[in-house]
Amino acid sequence: QVQLVESGGGLVQAGGSLRLSCAASGRISSSSINAMGWYRQAPGKQRELVAVIISGGRTNYADSVKGRFTISRDNAKNTVYLQMNSLKPEDTAVYYCNLRTYVNYVNYWGQGTQVTVSS
């Protein structure tokens, strides 16, 4: 099995920064990972894509975070990061790490980490 452990969430004032980390462990190797990314879910809303980094380094961001968030990945550590700058109250949500494998496009999810941005 594959486990994803997230860290780095918390409470921050508007305009501040946070860095999320997600480490993958278990029966997974770097070469078997197709993509790693971050999703978020605010109360009463559907889970949405925030950012994803695909094998080879191509990235994709939600329009709402472009220019403020940066996703990166350390292949040696099977870890993905999300640097969040200029945070806004509307960024408040539970952030979930996602990993997708090449074989059968299996998706794994972390337990979620709360990000709260106060105005």
Measured between the Cα atoms of the first and last residue, the distance is 40 Å
Tally of extended strands? 11
- Assembly status: single chain
- The helix/strand series, from N terminus to C terminus, equals EEEEEEEEEEE
Tell me the fraction of residues in β-strands, as a range: over 45%
* Biggest sheet details: 7 strands, mixed
Total helix count?
0
Radius of gyration: 14 Å
User: What coarse outline follows from CA principal-axis ratios?
Assistant: globular
Mean pLDDT: 95
Secondary-structure content class: mainly beta
Helicity, as a percent range: under 10%
Pick out the low-confidence regions. none
What features would you highlight for this structure?
4-stranded antiparallel sheet; 119 residues
Descriptive account of the structure:
It is a single chain. The chain is mostly beta strands and 119 residues long. The protein is 0% helix and 58% strand. It is built from no helices and 11 strands. It has strands spanning 2-7, 10-13, 18-26, 33-41, 48-54, 58-61, 69-74, 79-84, 93-101, 107-109, 113-118. The strands form 2 sheets. Strands 2, 4, 5, 6, 9, 10 and 11 form a 7-stranded mixed sheet that branches. A 4-stranded antiparallel sheet has the order 1-3-8-7, with no helix packed on it. The radius of gyration is 14 Å and the shape is globular. The protein starts with a strand and ends with a strand. The model has no long low-confidence stretch (mean pLDDT 95).
Explain briefly what this protein structure is.
By secondary structure, the chain is mostly beta strands. Helix content is 0%, strand content 58%.
